[in-house]
């Protein structure tokens, strides 16, 4: 089983470096261009199925990819949503730092034990991601190439929890809007693909 993790294209809030969380925002012009670019990069992949967060920015990105894969089943799920930032949603880092610097510092230092006010901790997001994996991926059972269109937080969680098995590495991974990463199920565990550029025959944007 191979998973291709694709972050949605850019929104106006991303451009302004705002925490989007569960806000249901559309792509802006650049975001649609990013979605079209990655759709072309992945056009020759033999996709088995496409999964997407139910938030608009992910659905719009996934729909652009699906144009090149007629007949491939497309599922959406709220379990694939970004981390909920609660009272911080819609704010920039600087705005949060000016309003709640102590909690911001504690959250960055310990995203597992500390949550944004009214939002989710990393473990809470992880529990819903595990529920999604159990029901949708059957814990790695079966073969195929699956595209998962979601957000930076869930992708970071998957790599820190399932691949590196080290939550302290959560902040290490940076993936831009329209960027993608690849993981494979091997010997009963998830591993980063050794040569992900071969998936589409072109160099992927990461």
UniProtKB/TrEMBL annotation:
UniProt key word Chaperone: no
GO molecular function annotations of the record: fructose-2,6-bisphosphate 2-phosphatase activity
Residues binding substrate, per UniProt: 7-14, 57
Keywords noted in UniProt: Hydrolase
InterPro entries in the record: His_Pase_superF_clade-1 (IPR013078), His_PPase_superfam (IPR029033), Phosphoglycerate_Mutase (IPR051695)
Residue positions of the active site: 8, 82
Protein name, entry field: Histidine phosphatase family protein
Organism: Kroppenstedtia pulmonis
Record lineage: Bacteria, Bacillati, Bacillota, Bacilli, Bacillales
